[in-house]
Design a protein that fits this description.
Distance between the termini: 115 Å
Helix content: under 10%
CATH architecture of the largest domain: Beta Barrel
CATH topology of the largest domain: Lipocalin
CATH class of the largest domain: Mainly Beta
Length: 748
């Protein structure tokens, strides 16, 4: 039974195979006939329908279609297809359409189509143009071998020209349209066999849309890294464009904008700066457009932890009204943020007192940095930070050289425990400089006794006035102070003399040091305007022996409109005699005043006999007030080493300029790396010409072993310095003929 069933299944399989596969071809082999049955000849763009007839296709599966050669197939069915010749046939050629049986793919039939090349203008339309905007388009031809001859029939829009070519397959229409409207014309092309083609065309010239700033945003930058964004882009209008900054806005410090729209430079301050750009086109009359943009400058690598804790600051310089002074304090968190800020400012218009602020800061690994205070107006300061955490500062936001303030000063760590002990009973010396009521240079220095209870029990001062000359040993007739606040170390004080009553705010640095600025309204009451420091004296009774050894001094003055400076050595013998060694720069004229002299020290620390008057703080240390028409003012500090050479000047020093005596004097903070007589200095400079960052290489040549050295840049004497100690020196600009002199203090 099983064997019989197996034979039955085999017979059934053979029957199914026979039925199925004989059904695919019917009673014979499938054949395909295509019509039309002759080769077709078509011109470019013409069509032909190909029909397939099949025999023995019992299931009516029909054919599939394929194409070899140019052209395209469409409207495909199992029995027909439409062939379309290409719109351009450069040279005569052939296309082949193939029909393939669906039931048996080995069975095919083909139909050939002969394509005839026909000279044709392939450009059938031209784009519109804009009035005053350059236009450049081509009319193209094909279907015959070059050369072609072109001709224009009709008139193009005014300002456009037709540039035919006998060697190219195209003709150019170019120029700058000068009138609105639509122009209709035709273009004719002729080939080498004198066949020709003509195409009707038109060009419409429209009024351009208004000029606009197309740039919507700018990439971020990084401090001390070259900034190279893409050029600013404008839309519409007539090129060329001219770019500028608008509405008094400024780019981030260190960047500039060229008339071609290129922003470039090296940013040197962190933060986001918003500004407005203005673009003007070349149309007549010209169009102008504005765009609001911003650039964020990121800090890069920082050492913000170096600035941490409570700080007091004092700066003096010039704003558009004249002399400008500011003092204040804040808290730095070591992470780049400032809180708890308070600032007093004063100029020849009005004081602004106890203004609160916050801010940010960024300290580079070099020790240079910047801080931005949210005052009104906001202020940016450049910083050079010493290893101990104190800093030199200059205001660094006057990019145009005259709009905001340009000033120099110090940023000092506060001892908050001294907020409750400042101005305790005892002797103090002070030194202030600034201007008198007529805005002429003015300075004063003196000494007083604090009663420790809010009063000054006695005191005397010497002043020097470019208008009226010096006043000697003027006694206090009254005065006192308020205790500093426990949060920021700010207090107030006043001094009463026969010359009048003057009021001040002060900020505690330590129990022995206060930063001071005058708060009187200058413009309405005829007060002077000064700022400076108060230092606690180390003894209540001085004598000639307190000038025993060498002190390094610095002086600055202004004789009329001529700045002058002097640095040098005051060597006292402790018995009333001294010898002076110095270098002086008076408006670019260099001299070396020096020689012996005698002095006398009063019990309150007042020293006479030198020429200027000196008020001692301790031995060989004190404030200096001149008795000359330049109103010299400065400070003397002890020289701690007696033998110096190039090896003494080694390490990293943070430098900063003393307060400028005139607007023409630069304000500078620097970091100098010294060793083996070579110095590498990076400086941030705020000058009458704006802001800059400069890197210089120089050499220091020591003469005798007294600490004096000549610093040369590219072999040219540029500075003279005097060492105070291996970690500190004063430096004076010593370029012959350069009137923008200044003195800088450097410290490790």
């Amino acid at each position: 039974m099983r064997k019989l069933r197996a034979h039955s299944l085999l017979a059934l399989g053979i029957l199914v195979y026979a039925v199925v596969f004989s059904g695919c071809s019917g009673t014979g082999t499938i054949s395909i006939t295509l019509s039309p049955d002759t080769t077709q000849t078509l011109n470019p763009g013409q069509t032909v329908t190909i029909i397939a007839s099949l025999t023995n296709d019992v299931n009516n599966q029909g054919v599939t279609w394929s194409l070899t050669g140019p052209g395209s197939l469409s409207s495909n069915t199992t029995t027909s297809v439409v062939y379309t010749a290409p719109s351009v046939v450069a040279v005569s050629t052939t296309a082949t359409i193939t029909a393939t049986s669906v039931a048996n793919i080995d069975i095919t039939a083909t139909e050939s189509v002969s394509l005839t090349s026909v000279l044709t203008i392939t450009t059938t339309s031209l784009p519109s143009g804009l009035l005053g905007v350059p236009y450049d388009e081509f009319v193209n031809a094909a279907g015959a071998p070059a050369p072609f001859t072109w001709a224009l029939n009709g008139t193009l829009p005014a300002g456009l020209t037709f540039l035919p070519s006998s060697t190219s397959t195209s003709a150019e229409i170019s120029g700058t349209p000068t009138a609105l409207g639509t122009s209709n014309f035709s273009v004719q092309v002729t080939d080498s066999a004198d066949a020709s083609a003509t195409q009707a065309l038109s060009i419409t010239i429209n009024k351009p849309p208004p000029l606009s700033v197309a740039t919507g945003s700018l990439p971020n930058g990084q401090v001390n890294t070259a900034y190279t964004p893409p050029p600013l882009q404008a839309s519409s209008g007539t090129q060329p464009y001219t770019w500028s900054l608008a509405n008094g806005t400024l780019l981030p410090i260190g960047l500039t904008l060229t008339p071609a729209g290129l922003i470039s430079g090296t940013p040197i301050v962190t933060g986001t700066t918003s500004f407005t750009v203005q673009v003007t086109d070349s149309s007549s009359p010209p169009q102008t457009a504005f765009g609001n943009l911003s650039i964020t400058i990121n800090p890069g690598s920082t050492t913000n932890s170096r600035l941490s804790g409570n700080y007091a600051f004092l700066v003096q310089g010039f704003d558009p009204n004249g002399l400008f002074v500011a003092a204040g304090s804040f808290v730095a968190d070591g992470l780049g943020n400032i809180s708890g800020g308070i600032i007093d400012t004063n100029d020849t218009v009005n004081p602004v007192l106890s203004q609160s602020f916050t801010g940010t800061y960024s300290i580079a690994t070099t020790g240079l940095g910047f801080m931005t205070l949210s005052t009104s107006p906001s202020r940016i300061f450049a910083i050079s930070l010493t290893a101990g955490g104190n800093a030199n500062i200059i205001e660094f936001d006057d990019s145009t050289g005259g709009v905001l303030a340009r000033d120099s000063g110090v940023l000092l760590k506060q001892d908050v425990s001294a907020f409750s002990t400042a101005l305790t009973a005892g002797p103090y010396a002070f030194g202030f400089s600034g201007i008198d009521s007529g805005q002429n240079r003015y300075g004063l220095a003196g000494a007083f006794q604090s009663g420790g209870n809010g009063s000054f029990t006695s005191g005397a001062l010497d002043s020097d006035d470019a208008s009226t000359g010096p006043s000697s040993d003027v006694p206090f007739t009254g005065g006192g102070y308020t205790a500093p606040t426990s949060t920021n170390g700010r207090g107030t004080a006043n001094i009463v003399t026969a010359q009048g009553t003057t009021g001040y705010s002060y900020y505690v640095v330590s129990a022995t040091q206060l930063l001071v600025m005058e708060t009187d309204t200058f413009s309405t009451k005829g007060y002077p305007l000064v700022s400076g420091q108060i230092l606690q004296q180390t003894t209540s009774s001085f004598a000639d022996g307190n000038l025993n050894g060498v002190g390094v001094f610095e002086l600055s003055g202004l004789d009329g409109t001529t700045p002058q400076s002097q640095i040098g050595l005051f060597a006292g013998n402790g018995g009333g005699g001294f010898n002076l060694t110095s270098d002086e720069n008076i408006g670019g004229a260099l001299t070396s005043p020096g020689g012996p002299g005698s002095y006398s020290v009063a019990p309150n620390g007042r020293v006479t006999g030198w020429g200027p008057v000196l008020y001692l703080v301790t031995t060989n240390t004190g404030f200096i007030i001149g008795t000359d028409s330049a109103v010299s003012f400065g400070y003397m500090t002890p020289q701690t080493v007696t033998q110096y050479n190039a090896a003494s000047l080694t390490g990293t020093y943070a430098g900063g300029s003393f307060a400028p005596v005139a607007p023409v004097v630069d304000n500078v903070v620097s970091i100098t790396v010294a060793g083996s007589g070579s110095l590498q200095t990076t400086s941030d400079i705020s000058s009458a010409n704006g802001l800059s960052q400069v890197q210089t290489a120089s050499t220091a040549q020591f003469g005798t072993n007294n600490g004096r050295a000549v610093v040369s840049v590219n072999g040219i004497q540029t500075y003279i310095l005097y060492m105070i100690s291996p970690s500190q020196f004063y430096q004076m600009v010593a370029i012959s003929g350069n009137p923008t002199i200044r003195v800088d203090s450097f410290q490790q």
